[in-house]
């Protein structure tokens, strides 16, 4: 059993038993800042070793998936689930976007097994954050609404996630590799320890969401479990067709399977205020995140292997 | 003489807004636009008609904004808050009378 998963389970159990345990919010903030920077830096260092233009097709694929996935989710939620338009659009945006925490766990899973993955996955992570937010807003309000797009753009592109991930990528890219050795102990060597603390808090947060599950019924639970599986299948096939390595395919599948709980809730609260934030956060934090961390990640590895055997090339 | 004037209490309104932390940037813009000379923001937690808001997650965090201003400004701000935010956000407004020593500031 991987210790970081056990940290997550400790958080879950402590939360379910109503323990007093709670990380100070400044600690949680700091830990998530370190994670975002580490992921960015690591990607930047490796991106510096390869030509940039060759990455554009993969970036385009990520954008297209980020635009289409929320449309599928929206249709399912409003047609089958009977959700109100704003709620369906907001949940769809959460599921079309990605979770950095899930990515970090999957990357650590691969690293601890000695499996490599393509250097530009962190770039795809950044790219995938954005399109679903825009689609979600348009689905809720229509294109010609009175949405203040400059405010939305500010919220989306200058949010903590994008600034730190992109910033880390650029720092890693431009830094003198020899000089990077000085910051390696904090950002690379301590990565799994930081991730463990992050997951402890995520376990507590996820457990605090279970209470509202009963309120919103079985459909949301089923959606929170089936949507990541659907996303992973799309991601695995796309990753294989993009020619990613096996590790890269698994990581891309995990990204598409994951649901946002930081960037999207903040953007939706401002841009689609009539959507109930408890619905989407309950699904993404209470169901999909634990599912991906505990069950999904090993499953998506098997899926990547199966897709690789099934698709030639 | 001037000192005497400074120490004489003047009445003003204290407007207290308790609402979602996500609204902070847009509320600050509103307050300045509507004529508030300043405001104080503190982090807050609590429970109300929209459930428990325990600041466990960013979307569950509250803030309390206090504005001291004249009656007309307070009424203007209160009306604008009701119009823009009451339907979709967790928000309460409290209005009270306070005494200040430096009326020029408020």
Radius of gyration of chain A: 19 Å
Whole-number mean pLDDT of chain B = 89
What is the spatial order of strands in the main beta sheet of chain B? 2-5-1-6
Q: Structural class of the secondary elements of chain B?
A: alpha+beta
How much of the polypeptide of chain B forms β-strand, as a percent range? 35-45%
Chain pair with largest interface: A-B, 18 and 12 residues
Helix content of chain B: 25-40%
Overall strand count of chain A: 0
Mean pLDDT of chain A: 92
Main sheet record of chain B = 4 strands, antiparallel
Number of DSSP E strands of chain B:
6
Sketch the major β-sheet of chain A.
Answer: none
Instruction: Name the helicity range of chain A.
Output: over 70%
Distance from N terminus to C terminus of chain A (CA atoms, Å) equals: 33 Å
Query: What's the N-to-C terminus distance of chain B?
Result: 21 Å
Count of helical stretches of chain B: 3
Outline the secondary-structure elements.
The complex is a heterodimer of chains A (313) and B (106).
Chain A: H1 3-16, H2 25-47, H3 56-80, H4 85-96, H5 100-112, H6 121-129, H7 131-141, H8 149-157, H9 160-174, H10 177-180, H11 184-189, H12 191-241, H13 246-257, H14 263-271, H15 277-310
Helix pairs in contact in A: 1-12, 2-9, 2-12, 3-4, 3-6, 3-7, 3-12, 4-7, 4-15, 5-12, 5-13, 5-15, 6-9, 6-13, 12-13, 12-15, 13-15
Chain B: H1 2-7, E1 10-20, H2 24-33, E2 40-44, E3 46-48, E4 51-53, E5 62-69, H3 71-85, E6 91-100
Antiparallel strand pairs in B: 1-5, 1-6, 2-5, 3-4
